Amino acid sequence: MEKDKTISNTTIRRLTKYYRYIEELDLKETSIISSYTLGKMMGISPSLIRQDFNAIGEFGRQGHGYNLDTLKKEIGEFLGINKIHNMIVIGAGNLGQTLANYDGFAKVGFPIKGLFDINPKLIGMKINGIEIIDLDQLNSFIKDNNIDIGILCVRKHCVQQMTDILVDAGIKGIWNFSAIDIDVPDDVKVESVNFSNSLFTLSYLMNDKYTNQKS
Ligand SMILES: NC(=O)c1ccc[n+]([C@@H]2O[C@H](COP(=O)([O-])OP(=O)(O)OC[C@H]3O[C@@H](n4cnc5c(N)ncnc54)[C@H](O)[C@@H]3O)[C@@H](O)[C@H]2O)c1
Prior knowledge:
Function: Modulates transcription in response to changes in cellular NADH/NAD(+) redox state.
CATH superfamily of the largest domain: NAD(P)-binding Rossmann-like Domain
DNA-binding region: 17-56
Bound molecules: nicotinamide-adenine-dinucleotide
Organism: Intestinibacter bartlettii
Binding site for NAD(+): 91-96
CATH topology of the largest domain: Rossmann fold
CATH class of the largest domain: Alpha Beta
Strand content: 15-25%
Distance between the termini: 43 Å
Order of helices and strands: HEHHEEHEHHEEEHEHEEHH
Shape: globular
Largest sheet: 7 strands, mixed
Number of helices: 10
Structural class: alpha/beta
Radius of gyration: 20 Å
Low-confidence stretches: none
Subunit structure: Homodimer.
Helix content: 40-55%
Strand order of the largest sheet: 6-7-5-4-8-9-10
Number of domains: 2
CATH architecture of the largest domain: 3-Layer(aba) Sandwich
Oligomer: single chain
């Protein structure tokens, strides 16, 4: 399927949500679902669902519902999650170790294969069975283990330097937890996660002064 560059981030986020819901439905062995039923389950309007599905392919006929297997396959292919993405963590401190301790990423096809750090006291330790390796070995490890995602969990002062090292080593995706923006070439994709920003959003939603305003 040709990737449509005009698809917005909001649509992408909804597609990931459809995928999760469809996975659950799969387990219950339902084979067809209508946009109406899916919309009711997810609190999304059926017309928006049809619009989202139309944006990434043609896999439903008006009034016939969607075949769940096809839908899951097509959305999975579109999101690139029908294959394994091997990951490494840069910075095996508080956050790096927390991520390594979570088994959920591996379960959805994103296994963490190694943690990298410069602190000699950490090198050789295992977190959830994953070794903390000296940064010197980064290049060969990336090649030998077919790593395509680097997770940035280092402090601000070395974030861009570590980004450049990852890019030079051939990494094509960076999951950036460092809370600062990074520069990468066009062919390297970055998804930044910032817990504080998420908290600010929650705070805004709780802020009656603005959210409950009558128009
Ligand atoms: N995005 C968020 O919401 C969020 C939440 C928590 C932490 N963070 C960020 O994550 C980063 C890490 O936080 P933390 O609490 O885990 O810090 P930490 O100090 O516990 O861990 C950082 C680790 O990086 C290692 N390190 C330093 N330089 C390195 C290098 N050049 N290469 C490899 N490893 C190196 C250190 O030895 C240390 O083990 C910080 O930038 C922090 O701001 C972000």
